[in-house]
Design brief:
2 copies of one chain form a homodimer. Chain A folds into 2 domains: 110 residues, Tetrapyrrole methylase, N-terminal domain (Cobalt-precorrin-4 Transmethylase, domain 1, 3-Layer(aba) Sandwich), CATH 3.40.1010.10; 152 residues, Tetrapyrrole methylase, C-terminal domain (Methyltransferase, Cobalt-precorrin-4 Transmethylase, Domain 2), CATH 3.30.950.10. Chain A is built from 11 helices and 12 strands.
């Protein structure tokens, strides 16, 4: 049987009681570490869970899923995912392959940034489509996420921006030359995300999203040292949010209660 | 200190390890039971947690919040919420009042239907604004949620529809006469939600949301007996989803992977 277990956000004890039970009855435990990552590391998780974890990177999951599924055919295997198991497409794909092979699966849900973002005071039902912002390269600067933020803002809705994570990625040169050399890990900060957003506003001469537009920067949500900061994009762009992971909300129309709650995070 | 602890969806062991620890160190434990409700009852939760729970209904939380906060000023108090603590406005309000009184708070996040809905195979980042559908009365049949579904659909986005829950509600007559007589509990089914949606389509002669529009009906998500059914609104309208709670998704544009995953739930 294959258990897809959400770890939630933050610490080792954010796993659910059910998740911990299933993990401990498993023969093998994989820890997915490329779509998201906890502030604490593999070692601390192993200490708390009392079990050895196998790091599963993108190559392993996308190219060798059958190895995991072969094991799950014979014994109980846990696949741990930061947040909720359905935050990323890849895990849906693993589930589909398991179903095709008639391997039983069980899902253990948990918090993800998509609902935990409510802790800043913004109401979840006032969020529109979520967007992902990727690191720009010199010759690749996608802007499609910006149109989605605009479309949400036109309807008065907030936008949750998920920020890029680069773990075990290869450069184009190394892919072409088929070399297993990986780039250093990178996590997009709130600051870089806002720089890219305001750069698009400038290019388009857009008056809807400007340096005065209000936003919320979030860092390490769910962890003991989480940080939330409400302010204009101009203010947030130069604020130091500290270590990974960061997220950003571009605010739509504010309800008075939302405003009152946000003010806790403005100083 | 006030702990706002999410219980997740489904069973007693869907609480996180952190949540269970904080609950057990609390002097008093309130169980919120009006914005959502677990399939299992208070008694089973008490058995598993080994602690007595105090049911907190809407009146208590909205009118007597100060009683809870007085206690939290002196000792550790837990306030348990089905799903994530930020699913409903009321809990944000409780948090704001605690902050105004300088009472320390800690949030324990958990899964909510807003992210667990991903288990049907639809990608979370392809959802637009979430809507709530309330029970229609003879003289009160709001349609504003319908416009939001349409606006999502125009952008190719899915819509999560949260369905009405009536717990310990008074009739207008009993409110006027100030009588503490409560109406029977009611939970909107997928079937009733679709009836109301298609009634609006008929009134408006709308060709965008029709009996052939595809949707997903979800019941008891996170519980052992959860049920997911994919089909046309016409099919889902007459399907028996069983006991509470139900939710509904109106589908926008489908990615091929989403389609493949949904097909697991079409028979």
């Amino acid at each position: 049987m294959l258990f897809l277990i959400g770890l939630g956000l933050g610490n080792a004890d954010d796993i659910t009681v059910k998740g911990l039970k299933l993990l401990q009855q498993s023969s093998k435990i994989y820890l997915e570490n490329y779509t998201s990552i906890l502030s604490i590391g593999k070692n601390e998780l192993e200490k708390v869970y009392g079990r050895e974890l196998i790091l599963a990177d993108r190559e392993m999951v996308e190219q060798n899923a059958d190895v995991i599924l072969d094991e799950a055919e014979r014994e109980d295997v846990s696949f741990l995912v930061v947040g909720d198991p359905f935050g990323a497409t890849t895990h849906s794909d693993l589930l589909l392959r398991a179903k095709e092979r008639n391997i039983k699966t069980q899902i253990v849900h948990n918090a993800s940034i998509c609902n935990a973002v409510g802790c800043c005071g913004l109401q979840l039902y006032k969020f529109g489509e979520t967007v992902s912002i990727v690191f720009w390269e010199i010759d690749w600067q996608p802007e499609s996420f910006y149109d989605k933020i605009l479309a949400n803002k036109e309807r008065g809705l907030h936008t949750l921006c998920l920020l890029d994570i680069k773990i075990k990625e290869k450069s184009v040169e190394n892919i072409i030359k088929n070399r297993n050399i990986y780039e250093p890990e990178r996590f997009m900060t709130v600051n870089v995300a806002i720089e890219q957003i305001l750069e698009i506003s400038k290019r388009r001469n857009c008056q809807v999203i400007t340096p005065q537009t209000k936003g919320v920067g979030l860092a390490r949500i769910g962890a003991d040292n989480q940080l939330i900061k409400y302010g204009s994009l101009e203010e947030l762009k130069i604020f130091n949010f500290g270590p990974k992971l960061h997220s950003l909300v571009i605010i739509g129309d504010l309800h008075p209660l939302e405003h009152d709650l946000l003010c806790n995070f403005s100083s």
